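Table 4 source record.
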Amino acid sequence: MRKLKFFIALALALFAAFLPFGADAMRAEAASAKYYIGGMTAGFMLSAGGAEVIGLSEVAAEDGLYRPAETAGIRVGDTIVAVDGIRVRTIAELNDALERSGGNEVTITIQRKGETAEVPITPVKDKKTSRYKIGVLIRDTLAGIGTVTFIDSESYRFGALGHAVCDENHNLLSISDPKVYLCSVIGVSKGMRGKAGELRGLFVNDTVLADAEKVCETGLYGTFERDYDFSHCELVEAAPLAEATIGKAIIYSTVDGVCPQKYEISIVKVDANNRENKNFVIKVTDERLLGETGGIVQGMSGSPILQNGKLIGAVTHVFLNDPTRGYGIGIEKMMGN
């Protein structure tokens, strides 16, 4: 089984910060609280948690070519998080730290596959720019797309994804740019046994959907634009896990363009006590969706799950050995963060 992850430099998902909202509170407020069903894809930017190395290069100095980073053992995929013990979060902060070195040896702290190491390295002055460099190509932000799950009809708080957003070192990512943009799905890599598929999307940069405010273990949360056209969005109540049953349900997802579509699924297991955001096992039964995606693919996490006309959860994971099956999180868990 593989967690649906947002796709770097293409595309990922979103979700709302609510007051504590357990099953009892949900039952008490269900008669009045209404939520717009999402299903649309949205693009957003997250911090890489430091300066992520995406390439190694030479530094042309007055007396020759040097490769300080490569010589010191830095590899593509490492994330530079500190220089001489001072935290580095952006490209600019790394450049400033290297300038302060004056060409003297510095200690760079890197993260690699969940482990931290300190690497001594001597920056070299580039003869063209007169700036100190170590010969790395880096990025400090990650782009992703994901599926909006719901929007509160009164507060306009929204949420999506249903699981944490982490980098390859399993570090929880933070928000880099608060703007959340409409995203258009331009292609699909179908899921197949042993390999997760994915949606491929592009930001529609002139259409801001929302402001993102936090990322946590159950997704990304923020506030939707009040002038967004909700006329095409279904307005429903939310239901606690106690009301979920084995049987037919539906999800809303966007697998082409910008318009969500309704697809049939079956809930085959309910586990209210699961602590890993896996409260449902679901199976895609809709022939249209199976034909278009092969089942559940990366980018669909956050797709709202409805049963008996009520919002009960969101898609979160795919079974790697069977893309027609996956997990879902109970909506009360998402609303509790």
